[in-house]
Amino acid sequence: MKTTASTNINIKNKRAFFDYEFIDTYTAGIVLTGTEIKSVRQGKASLVDTFCFFSRGELWVKNMHIAEYFYGSYNNHAARRDRKLLLTKKELRKLQRTSDEPGFTIVPTRLFINERGLAKVVIALAKGKKQYDKRQTLKEKEDRRMMDRMFKR
Hints:
By secondary structure, the protein is α+β, with helices and mostly antiparallel strands. The chain has helices at 14-19, 34-41, 89-99, 131-152, and strands spanning 10-12, 20-30, 45-46, 51-55, 58-62, 65-66, 83-86, 104-113, 119-128. The strands form two sheets. The protein has a seven-stranded antiparallel sheet with strand order 1-8-9-2-7-5-4. It has a two-stranded antiparallel sheet with strand order 3-6.
């Protein structure tokens, strides 16, 4: 078993934690090409403005940015193409049933490389927060910071 620095890849979607309230989370595999996995292992990916959608019973992620591989040739990938997510049929049915209800969406929250060297995406079934919920989240975060500062003294 190899232990390299590439296993420390952990790309988060911080905006999703602010904008959505998570109901349920799933870990899904992601179908990548050769140059895409090389870019992910270098940490050249972003989950900003990404979302998931169903097409013909399959779950896809849209707007995930994986930078082109620097050493890639004409075989390099498109940076913002749609990528297929791999889940069990039972999980897919449950997600599709719930995401069809109004107010629910599926957002990727984290992209990482597991111990076997495979790229995985943590997706969450989420409900959008209202403006006052966002203000409350900011207030709680600020209160936690103040408490930590007081205990450090």
